[in-house]
Structure formats: C-alpha cells, structure tokens
C-alpha cells in the first residue's frame, strides 16, 4: 500500500510487472477508471520511463 491507503505502492515493483500493467490499462485489457484514462495517452517511451523510475526506487 502507498502512503495513502487508497493508492497502490508502485515503489520497487518489478519492471516487467509495471510495464505489463500499464500497457494493459492503455489497451483496455485492464480497466480502472483513473488508470485507464491516464494510461491511454502514454507512449511506449513514456511507459519505459515510468517503469524505470518506479522500479529503480527500491522498496524502502
């Protein structure tokens, strides 16, 4: 769980997991109103940057 209970903790998630989930939100294979709306506009390069950022934070 993230700092706020209603938000997921993305910090330190595995890169492959994050990439798969963001692409699923973007394509509509996975639905969540907020994430689907935001991910729809992401390019592959955007997803790569986001994945590297969150995966690189570690778990602390």
From TrEMBL:
Keyword match Transport: yes
Keyword DNA damage attached: no
Entries under Gene3D superfamilies matching the protein: Cytochrome c-like domain
Any one Gene Ontology molecular-function term assigned to this protein's record: electron transfer activity
Keywords for this protein: Electron transport, Transport
PANTHER family, per the entry: CBB3-TYPE CYTOCHROME C OXIDASE SUBUNIT FIXP (PTHR33751), CYTOCHROME C4 (PTHR33751:SF9)
Protein name: Cytochrome c
Lineage: Bacteria, Pseudomonadati, Pseudomonadota, Gammaproteobacteria, Cellvibrionales
């Amino acid at each position: 769980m993230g700092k706020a209970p209603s938000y997921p903790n993305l910090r330190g998630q595995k890169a492959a997991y994050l990439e798969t989930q963001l692409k699923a939100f973007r394509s509509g294979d996975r639905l969540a109103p907020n994430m689907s709306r935001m991910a729809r506009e992401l390019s592959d390069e955007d997803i790569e940057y986001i994945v590297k950022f969150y995966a690189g934070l570690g778990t602390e």
